[in-house]
Specification:
about 650 residues; alpha+beta; Transferase(Phosphotransferase), domain 1; four-stranded mixed β-sheet; about 30% strand
Length: about 650
């Protein structure tokens, strides 16, 4: 496999999107505009016809300026290879979308057809016939825009040099999508060949099948010229009469019975979809298509619903009332509305561990679409359910006590397709590629075993030595006091240093450990921590409360009061610090306040008059005494520190 170049011309290569015998396609970035682009590289140089078609594709698309056609910005040669630089569409091709969905809802398919028809009308107005209309050449962005690509075999009706590239009797195109006249001579076809191919593409969107799927060209050709294909309603009974008539008219094998030009197709589609073109809004249904590409379902306001569909919508309305219990969120309405597109998926986690212990582990399960990674579904695991109203509708695995050592998910209806199942149980991860079948094919004969029920066996990891790290802080100030803190664990009936226990590998994961944390000047703390099986590291985070000190205040005048740090309140010390109001001072009874250690400013106050301030540094377990004294002869009051025996 050839190495991916770092640059092509001035463009930085990000990744390779595709490769083949004629060349490769790269995702690139513009050097100054930081715009993502696509570079098509042609390396098949031994054919002058191929080189000329590649150049002419660039020329045709370079001159096009349509919202419905991918823009081309550059064409150049580097070394022996030729390159086309064109617009990058962040989204999905119609071919991949059909593969993901199996077939498309009619209101989506008709809108995609409308925008493809507008693209072809623009090309036809410039005398260009595409000649290779197929789902692989239709791109749908995440924003809901639809664009036509690949004019590599397009013909220009008013240019004589087209004869040099397409000779009489030469056949170009993809056989399953080609009009009958295109098999005779691709050079002589007109815009009605594109109309025919557009009809074939609509058939595939509505049924998920090609109308002429033969692998042998002669057999395919015979079916095409006779116009014999399977009635699409036998594949998808929900196809409307409008779409049947549209298919019949666009896929007429006889030219004179086909639509004459693309405007006739556009007019019919716009009338049926009730879309009125608005200048400056090329994609009227962009939001609807964007939601569909992202995996959401948006139904048109003017959808014409048959009686059978109306019954399904009535059932969905009943489920909406029931939706408060989570049933609607799990997609149960899709079982009624779209059983051909959705299937119920369930996950079972089996383990030898006790279910309660297992449920305490961090468990995360999800399904991610392989075709469209943005499409994800969470799968919450829980113990088998009790007292659920529709218990008779649940599979046996969800019924009470059915799986004593398992966790299960409620069945959830999701779109069929390939998914990546990712499950994390504690520190262990499981990855599995699965295919979710639509409900119509979920229970195949003869055993009728649910193909969408996935079982993961989880083995409890063996106990492993734990490494303990700790971060200890002062609860009041937030200061890190780890270096001077002592962390011990209960082992063998006594508390021992964590450092010695971990050095001797005596603390193992999966066990409940009793810790004691202490430091001089702080209240000690004990706590129990459960470690998870398989863990190797445990970080212990805790906060210690500093041991408090005390101050006792006495006064000789009942009209005096105390302020601490210029406030009428203070933080009361002890194991449970809290804010408290400073009580009134009483000459007959000194007050004692319990304060955390620290720096404080004490101040006496009498009415509106403020006395002197006294700064103190209180330490743990310290008790200090103060007196507020009023000297009436001098009309002053003072705050001073005294000894315990000097209290009045």
């Amino acid at each position: 496999m050839a190495a991916i170049p770092e640059r092509i011309g001035k463009y930085k290569i990000i990744s390779q999107l595709a490769t083949g015998g004629m060349g490769a396609v790269y995702k690139a970035q513009h050097p100054t505009l930081q715009q993502e682009l696509v570079i098509k590289k042609l390396t098949m140089l031994d054919s002058s016809h191929v080189r000329e078609r590649f150049r002419r594709e660039a020329q045709i698309m370079f001159n096009f300026k349509s919202d419905y056609i991918v823009d081309v910005y550059d064409h150049f040669r580097e070394g022996k290879a030729y390159h086309i630089v064109q617009e990058y569409i962040d989204g999905i091709s119609l071919e991949d979308l059909i593969e993901r969905e199996r077939y498309l809802p009619e209101h989506i398919a008709l809108r995609i057809m409308l925008y493809a028809a507008r693209a072809l009308k623009y090309a036809h107005s410039r005398n260009v016939v595409h000649r290779d209309i197929k789902p692989g050449n239709i791109l749908i962005s995440r924003r809901g825009t639809v664009k036509l690509v690949d004019f590599g075999i397009a013909s220009i009706r008013d240019r004589i040099n087209d004869e040099d590239l397409t000779q009489i009797g030469m056949t170009l195109g993809t056989p399953s999508y080609m009009a009958p006249e295109q098999f005779t001579s691709s050079r002589d076809v007109d815009k009605r060949a594109d109309i025919y191919s557009l009809g074939v593409m609509l058939y595939e969107m509505l049924t998920g099948k090609k109308p002429f799927p033969g692998t042998k060209l002669p057999e395919t050709y015979q079916r095409i010229i006779k116009g014999k294909y399977r009635n699409p309603r036998r594949i998808n009974p929900n196809i409307s009469r409008f779409s049947l008539r549209l298919l019949k008219k666009t896929m007429q094998p006889k030219l004179r019975r086909r639509y004459r030009d693309m405007q006739q197709v556009i007019r019919r589609l716009e009338r049926h979809l009730r879309i009125k073109p608005v200048i400056g809004v090329p994609f009227e249904s962009a939001d609807m298509l964007a939601d569909f590409v992202a995996g959401k379902r948006t139904w048109p306001r003017n959808a014409r619903v048959r009686i059978g569909q109306a019954a399904g919508i009535a059932a969905a309305a009943l489920l909406l009332i029931w939706g408060s219990s989570g049933i609607l969120r799990l997609g149960y309405h899709q079982r009624l509305l779209q059983p051909g597109l959705y299937g119920s998926v369930s996950l079972q986690l089996q383990s030898a561990m006790d279910p309660q212990e297992l449920s305490r582990l961090p468990i995360d399960a999800r399904l991610t679409s392989e075709q469209f990674p943005a499409l994800q579904y969470d799968l919450p695991l829980r113990r088998p359910l009790r007292n659920l109203a529709p218990i008779q509708q649940l599979p046996p695995l969800l019924r009470p006590d059915a799986l004593p050592n398992s966790l299960v998910t409620l069945p959830r209806y999701i779109r069929s397709g390939r998914y990546r199942l990712e499950l994390q149980v504690g520190s262990q991860q499981y990855h599995q590629l699965v295919y979710v079948h639509a409900r119509e094919r979920q229970f195949p004969e003869p055993r009728r075993q649910n193909q969408n029920h996935f079982v993961i066996e989880h083995a409890s990891p063996a106990p492993r030595p734990l490494r303990i790290s700790s971060v200890i802080r002062d609860q009041l100030s937030g200061t890190n006091i780890t270096p001077l803190a002592r962390v011990e664990a209960l082992h063998g009936g006594r508390f021992q240093s964590v450092e010695s226990l971990t050095a001797n590998q005596q603390l193992l994961s999966g066990e409940e450990i009793h810790f004691r944390i202490s430091r001089a000047g702080y209240y000690s703390q004990e706590l129990q921590v459960s470690s998870r099986p398989g863990e190797t590291e445990l970080e212990l985070r805790s906060a210690l409360v500093p041991r408090s000190g005390q101050i006792t205040i006495a006064t000789t005048d009942s009209r005096t009061s105390l302020r601490i740090n210029n406030s009428r309140s203070y933080i009361q010390g002890g194991m449970n610090p809290r804010d408290m109001r400073i009580p009134p001072l009483d000459p007959d009874q000194p007050i004692t306040l319990q304060l955390p250690p620290g720096r404080y400013t004490l101040q006496s106050v009498r009415g509106f008059r403020q006395g002197n301030e006294l700064g103190i540094n209180l330490t743990s377990d310290q008790h200090r005494y103060f007196l507020i004294e009023f000297l009436s002869d001098e009309d002053i009051f003072t705050l001073s520190e005294i000894q315990e025996g000097e209290l009045p």
